[in-house]
Please model this.
Amino acid sequence: METIALVGNPNSGKTTLFNALTGANQKTGNYPGVTVSRVSGVLRTPHGNKYELLDLPGCYSLSPRAEDERITRDVLLGDQKGNDRPSAVVCVVDASNLERHLYLLLQVVDLGLPVVVALNKVDLAESQGIRINVELLSEELGLPVIPCQANKGKGVVDLKHAIRHPFPHPPKRIWHAEKATESAIEDLAKQLEVNGSANPAAHAIHLLADAEYRTEDQPGIDHGMRQAAMNAAAECISAGESPEEDISQSRTQRVQAVCKLTAKRLDAGGLTISDKIDQAVLHPVGGWFIFIGVMLLVFWSIFSWSSYPMDWVETGIGALAESVSTMLADGDVKDLVIDGIIGGVGSVVIFLPQILLLLFFIGLMESTGYMGRAALLMDGLMSKVGLSGKAFLPLLSSYACAIPGIMATRSMDSAKQRLLTILIAPWMSCTARLPVYSLLIGMLLASYGAMLQALMLAAMYFFGTATALLAAWLLAPKVKGEEEPSHFLMELPAYSVPDFGYIGRHLTERAWAFLKKAGTVILGISIILWALQTYPKPDDGNPAADDPALALEQSYMGKIGHAIEPVVKPLGYDWRTGTALIAAFAAREVFNANLAISYSVEEDDDEEKFLKKLRSKLGNATWPDGTKIYTPVTTLSLLIFFVYALQCLPTTAVVRRETGSWNWAIGQLVGMTVVAWLAAFVVFQIGRLISG
Model:
């Protein structure tokens, strides 16, 4: 089955068009050796032909700034390992941003593949007073141009009709550079053909148009080809021409000429609706009030609306455990399945509603066009700590869970900033910390009202976020990468009605990716922790046989807890708290359940009743000398520890996958643990001195 590549700028509606063309016939994987997703589907045309439609990552240019843009370039050039070169290309062009999007189209045409143009968002262009002569545009480009409106399915059938087989001959290049550059392109293409290049003309243009491409190791380009390209570029320079600037300028001039001929704006001096909205949204003062209001609304909605589905999930997990319990005989296998597998994985699944709600709001902001504005506002703040506004989306996602946040860094164009964002993402307080915050803040401020407790919770989020930005500022000079920060470049699309179909598919993909990548790791960790808490089992007649708290103390986990007590005692914790901290490495919310076992507190279907009983037990717990363990200072120390500690081995596994290095993953885990210990130590020791 032949492959057709679908390419386009970010925000061009490419993914919406891909879904309209393929329906449910889609599959997702990864390109070999990288973490960039490979999305493809089956396209059937009215002529009875069937193709694989490959949805390539969105890019502004084929001179890449990010890993996903590099993938697009290499696939189109035929250099991507494990992928054959496409037989044809469908290039999506936003009609409301014609000049900006045609530049990528000209680069695609230069690759020597048959091309069909999908002129998307024609309705939006018309609403902005832009009129495009489609026939003349097709004539100027030498390509079939199909106007469409992907979000409503308009023009999709016409686009399928335009994809004919056999494919037409590749279109001719429609721009021309200066004489020296043109001569260099022609001569280099001949040399590449002699050297065995599969696509000599396409590679010749790209080697001369992109200095980085010809000077660094690239797939499909050997040393001889690179040397020939450098010699050709040197000849251009000696003739007084820079091939990169000449090719870029020639393409730009041709794009401007095409747009001048084919596109007219009826009210050239007037402001569009998006422009008028941006006057408020991007206002240097008012824009921040709008941004803060939107963020407060998002987080209020998440915590208000998620309680019901979380209760449903918890009830479902309980029903599943009860059902399985009746099928299995008493013994270790039953305990493993109920406590280790269902309980362990269930501790993650229960937070899925909160994660999905945050991802829904992120999808809503992206689909309406507000996300780009928020990133632009944040760029000024983030640039002061070595990041760009593009880090905003991954960090925002990390409030739900660090794992999807870390995965969202794939679209960042700077490897250095991507690594920085990955390293600080776990400091954004995720939803898994909430049960621990709820337990400890309730203990610390039991005699105060809900308002003060809510402010304390907000302070935990503030401390985590502030520490993340401080860490980025401290780490930026130490992380290898480009010396100068990359320029912030993000297209601000026109505001539009949300595409709920896209949002729904986005949620499904992210939810499955989260469960697959995090759930499998947590399953393994939960089984290991269950074994540590269960063995060695007390003999018959041993008091521990009837006392879960004593059995836990005599288990391997309890012995580990006693062994680390000297490490956690300076923070105000005893061995039982230390044991719960270790168990929390599977998932932070396990901390509460483990403390409940240690202090013989029975689980309760009513969460608030359970927390009340656990707080009472902890409040009465004492050291051997009779002094209380959980003083206000100890509780505050523990809160600070949870703000700063990574304590999430699934996140460590994902960091290893995304960075390709155990050094970064383990370094992050150890570093955050050390920071948490030091912060908790300072709080406890100073607090103890002040309280006397």
Remarks:
- The radius of gyration is 29 Å.
- Residues 379 and 388 are 5 Å apart (CA to CA).
- Residues 500-534 form the longest helix (35 residues).
